[in-house]
Design goal:
The complex is a heterodimer.
Chain A lengths: L7 E7 L5 E5 L1 E9 L4 H15 L2 E7 L14 E9 L10 E6 L2 H7 L3 E10 L5 H6 L16 E5 L1 H8 L7 H6 L1 H12 L5 H10 L4 H20 L5 E4 L8 E7 H16 L3 E5 L6 H8 L7 E4 L3 H13 L3 E6 L1 H17 L3 E7 L16 H6 L8 E4 L5 H16 L2 E7 H5 L1 E5 L47 E3 L14 H17 L9 E2 L4 E8 L3 H13 L4 E6 L1 E3 L5 H6 L1 E8 L4 H10 L3 E5 L8 H13 L1
Helix pairs in contact in A: 1-6, 4-8, 6-8, 7-8, 9-10, 9-14, 11-12, 17-20
Chain B lengths: L27 H13 L8 E5 L14 E4 L5 H11 L4 E7 H7 L1 H9 L4 E7 L2 E2 L5 E2 L23 H7 L4 E6 L3 H13 L4 E6 L11 H4 L1 H7 E3 L7 E2 L5 E5 L5 E5 L20 H7 L13 E8 L5 H16 L13 E4 L1 H5 L1
Parallel strand pairs in B: 1-2, 1-3, 3-4, 4-8, 7-8, 9-13
Antiparallel strand pairs in B: 5-6, 7-13, 10-11, 11-12
Helix pairs in contact in B: 1-6, 2-10, 3-4
The structure holds iron/sulfur cluster (SF4).
Chain lengths: 628, 351
């Protein structure tokens, strides 16, 4: 159960320095500043400290597409939002309770998300005339009364930080680089966070540069002590540990979890992973991480383009290893023809699509889930592939293994859809027991399979063809993109054969439904509204449906992790609710598929703003639908 | 993966059961025949060969070889070959491509496979035309070539495959002619023995859409004057009477000279396929037959360049092996390690 506003759950007690301490269930903090201000780092550190402290967490980094937009401009604002809680939470939070802004541009772009009465910490040193102009302010909002609906705390962060590191003989630039840690220290004080994890991180990170190391330590401590001293902060807040399921935890982002999942799959299948990719936001981090995991037998190939990455993945799988490619929507466009080749040749291969805002270059750093129909239909001919999607950052691990499992079991390309929000967002991940997972069995034939001859398209009862690999004597055979004769695999243009092969390829994918889990429903097994979703919207949908139920409605939630084929009980589940609502960060693509496939009157809730759903947006749509 | 009794394959063992469907008289037949002959002589079992092609007449090639084969999509054969060699450096991988497949739609992959020195053999059938799509001009078609898509004559400057390969830092580059079967077989064998990316341009006649385009290289009456056989360490001499040669003038330009008074054999360029710098090879790649020139240049055939450089697949796999050797193979339980792991014990959960 989650709430996003800070609800006091006990009366104030006295804290450090005689200051009052108030308990909160959940708090949402956002750090915002120029992309050079180190906000992502501050946010990550705060997340780690909170996770280690024992809160549940959910994060939302938000950075500009430009690596270095002009300093101080609106285009250059970078933010990091953290929801930390004593409860089980699924989203980074609708509304921000505490906003830290390092300059006027950050104030301007982020203020609308701060709750009224929320805490606003500003670096007052960066509100000079030119800073204000760059952000498009005529006069300073700090002085004109426009912020009086918030609890504003003006802190001259830049100058206080410079003073704190004054005797370390750093250049002004170097000194100013630590100011994010000053701000972080202040917020650590405000929310009683442990500083040790960050101090440890600083010591390790800057061990080669003692002066910078010391400066960052001092900045953090100075910020912390500043909070302890000044009168402007009359209270501290306490967010108690969450009642998290016992286990061994670490924090993980979606891209990290996905990389680890691919490597785990390779260990479970006892096959080297060959990851072929071309740099593209927001998928590149997978390539980076895997390139550094050679110890696990991983081969990475940074291809000359997206097409080459796809072709190489097919080549690697043809050779008997696990060929995987990773990209985002624009890359999928380029890979389409080669994906069709893998469908035709029935080669196992995984295509990871970390979706971003489209069409075309679109919003490279923002999230969206508008590639579902591209994955489904974006190729010439009748060209079915398996499609699955991860629903949370940690779930990327499990679904990566699942993608590999399905690919090799059914000799087919498998799309694994994630998105920018999952890729960069993080959550605690229970890693206990993960080293005990079911193996992925793979067999390659070593002998002819029909009358002393090898028939590459002779199928088993699930319609799957054998995976014979080059180097095996006696099984020499040719595959290719031209239509095949079933069984022999020879080139064949006959009308009946083509019909047969198109049917077979479709049926083979349909057969996957026999081996995947049924669709699970959270909430009543029948009722007024079923909220259906897929992918990274899981947290918002789950939270919204829980809230609607708390309001007394008969509402349930079904989140699709398998999108092609759909789970075998889907039709049955859809029938049991009066109305179906499908919130998606696209124009209504799953909704379209459900309507087409199951002839249900599903309602779409569409959002395409490069941002996740707010819980309130979904709750109000549920209420609208109920009142119709 | 080697067999106990090394196979003495014959060309016939390498023929698949598929009916060959090129137009009668097509130059591809000869290349297929010489390929089978060349491979049979290598002492490598046939299951270790993989032929990968793109799209085009030449790309049907893998179907006719009784080896492993992959008829892929237009221009992309080198990409599949790259993945395959990364996965399986033990295999002998051949890419069969053409001027349209390899230099137009697949130009990018052609360059990068060569640049990386991937250990593959790329055989580029150059017929200066799109055959399978029924006769459009290609990136190697000569200026003025009249086709269905260039009815008034092509005005696009043609690419020179060998120049491109050298520009892409090729370690092995050669040229041969479909009808010159001994030379063709020889050149394919040399490519096969090269460790690294080997590019062989084969002048191939498309008798349907571009017939006779290589006649000046084949016709007995003029061939000797138009072909320069490259031989490592030998002076560049050609001509019916073996009295013409290539000399470098003071402006670093090659010129055709006649041996005799004032021009001794020592003045001529000597072929050096092993030269570290590809300057000479590049210079040779620029020789183009111009029937209107006063002293026309011969077009070189043979090995332009053959040098050694570590291969991509080898280095990639070496890195993996090296890190496993020094740090040990990664295990499942290590996968989840992170700097910040915290335990939520049973009691906290119940409190
Ligand atoms: S069209 Fe030309 S290249 Fe193609 S098979 Fe016929 S003759 Fe050969």
């Amino acid at each position: 159960m989650s709430t996003t506003a800070p609800v006091p759950i006990s009366n104030s007690t006295n804290g450090h320095n005689g200051r009052a301490v108030q308990e909160r269930q959940s708090v949402v903090i956002r750090f915002a500043g120029d992309s050079g201000d180190g906000m992502q780092l501050a946010g990550t550190q705060f997340t780690n400290a909170s996770a280690i402290f024992g809160n549940d967490i959910s994060t939302l980094p938000d950075f500009p597409a430009e690596i270095r937009a002009p300093a101080g401009t609106l285009a250059g604002v970078s933010g990091y939002q953290i929801n930390f809680s004593s409860q089980d939470i699924h989203t980074p939070g609708d509304q921000v309770n505490t906003l830290v802004v390092m300059n006027p541009a950050a104030l301007k772009t982020n203020l609308k998300d701060l709750e009224s009465g929320g805490i606003l910490i500003v670096n007052s040193d960066s509100f000079g005339t030119s800073d204000l102009h760059k952000a498009g302010y005529e006069k300073s909002p700090l002085d004109d009364g426009s912020l009086k609906g918030y609890r504003m705390i003006k802190v001259p962060i830049t100058s206080l930080n410079r003073k704190a590191v004054a005797d370390l003989k750093l250049s002004t630039r170097e000194a100013d680089r630590c100011k994010n840690f000053f701000a972080l220290g202040l917020v650590y004080w405000l929310y009683e966070r442990p500083t040790e994890p960050t101090l440890r991180w600083i010591k390790d990170k800057f061990k080669k540069n003692p002066a910078v190391q010391e400066a960052n330590v001092r900045a953090l401590k100075a910020g912390y002590n500043f909070g302890d001293t000044i009168e402007a902060l009359p209270v501290q807040y306490r967010v108690p540990k969450a009642k998290i399921k016992p286990g061994k935890y670490r924090k993980v982002t979606g891209n990290e979890a996905l990389s680890l999942g691919l490597v785990a799959a390779s260990l479970l299948a006892n096959k080297p992973l060959v990851y072929c990719s071309y740099p593209i936001t927001p998928a590149s981090d997978i390539l980076h991480q895997l390139a550094d995991m050679k110890r696990f037998g991983v081969r990475t190939f940074q291809a000359e383009d997206e097409i080459a990455a796809m072709g190489a993945a097919i080549g690697a799988s043809f050779g008997g290893t696990l060929g995987v490619t990773g990209t985002s929507g624009p890359g999928v466009c380029l890979k389409s023809e080669a994906i069709g080749l893998a469908v035709m040749t029935e080669i196992p291969v995984v295509i990871v699509d970390v979706q971003r805002g489209g069409p075309s270059t679109g919003l490279p750093t923002k999230t969206e889930q508008a590639d579902l129909l591209q994955a489904m239909f974006g190729r010439n001919g009748e060209c079915p592939v398996a499609i699955i999607a991860a629903s949370t950052p940690a779930d990327c691990y499990r679904m990566a293994i699942e993608a590999v499992r399905l690919a090799v079991r059914f000799m087919t390309p498998v799309f694994l859809l994630t998105d920018g929000y999952l890729a960069n967002g993080s959550e605690p991940w229970d890693i206990s027991g993960l080293d005990q997972q079911e193996a992925i069995p793979i067999t390659h034939p070593s002998k002819p399979n029909q009358d002393g001859q090898f028939m590459p398209y002779l199928r088993d009862e699930r319609l799957v063809r054998p995976w014979a690999i080059p180097g095996t004597p006696g099984l020499e055979h040719r595959v290719g993109g031209i239509e095949k004769q079933d069984v022999t695999g020879n080139v064949n243009y006959e009308p009946e054969n083509h019909q047969h092969m198109v049917n077979i390829r479709a049926q083979k994918i349909a057969n996957i439904a026999n081996e995947i889990p049924e669709l699970e429903v959270a909430g009543p097994s029948e009722g007024d509204v079923l909220v259906c979703g897929w992918g990274g919207t899981y947290g918002s949908l789950a939270t919204a449906v829980e809230e609607a139920r708390a309001q007394g409605h008969k509402v349930a939630h079904a989140h699709f992790r398998y999108l092609n084929p759909f789970p075998r009980n889907t039709a049955d589940v859809l029938k049991r609710y009066k109305k179906i609502l499908v919130p998606e960060l696209n124009g209504g693509q799953l909704c379209w598929l459900l309507r087409a496939k199951f002839l249900v009157n599903a309602h779409s809730l569409s959002k395409v703003q490069g941002k996740p759903f707010l819980v309130s947006e979904i709750v109000s749509e549920i209420n609208d639908l109920l009142s119709q | 993966m080697s067999t106990t009794s090394l196979p003495t394959l014959t060309a016939k063992d390498l023929a698949s059961d598929q009916e060959v469907r090129w137009c009668p008289g097509c130059g591809d037949y000869s290349i297929l025949a010489q390929m089978k002959k060349a491979l049979a002589g290598l002492g490598i079992p046939r299951e270790q060969f993989v032929f990968i092609s793109g799209i085009g007449c030449s790309s049907r090639f893998p179907y006719y070889m009784n080896t492993y084969g992959f008829h892929s999509i237009h221009g992309r054969a080198p990409t599949l070959a790259t993945g395959l060699k990364i996965a399986r450096p033990d295999l002998h991988v051949w890419v069969i491509t053409g001027d349209g497949d390899g230099l137009s739609i697949g130009g990018n992959h052609f360059i990068h496979a060569i640049r990386r020195n991937l250990d593959i053999k790329i055989i580029l059938f150059n017929n200066e035309i799109y055959g399978l799509t029924k006769g459009q001009y290609s990136p190697t078609s000569r200026l003025g070539t009249r086709t269905k898509s260039s009815p008034m004559g092509s005005f696009e400057l043609p690419l020179r495959p060998i120049s491109i390969a050298i520009g892409a830092e090729a370690t092995f580059v050669a040229r041969t002619v479909d009808t010159d079967i001994a030379h063709l077989c020889d050149t394919l064998q040399r490519a096969a023995r090269h460790k690294g990316a080997a590019v062989v341009e084969v002048y191939q006649n498309c008798n349907i859409f571009n017939d006779g385009v290589w006649d000046y290289m084949k016709d007995k009456s003029v061939k000797a004057d138009n072909v320069l056989y490259l031989e490592h360490g030998k002076p560049m001499i050609f001509g019916k009477d073996k009295n013409k040669g290539i000399r470098l003038n003071g402006k670093l330009e090659p010129e055709v000279v006649t041996l005799g008074p004032g021009v001794a054999q020592d003045d001529l360029l000597t072929h050096d396929e092993k030269a570290e710098e590809p300057t000479l090879a590049y210079l040779l790649s620029r020789f183009v037959h111009d029937p209107n020139a006063e002293t026309p240049f011969p077009e070189p055939v043979g090995v332009f360049r053959a040098v050694q450089r570590p291969t991509y697949d080898q280095q990639l796999n070496d890195q993996v092996e090296q890190v496993i050797k020094t740090k040990g193979a990664g295990k499942m339980e290590e996968l989840f390690q992170s700097d910040d792991i915290w335990i939520v014990p049973e009691e906290t959960a119940q409190s």
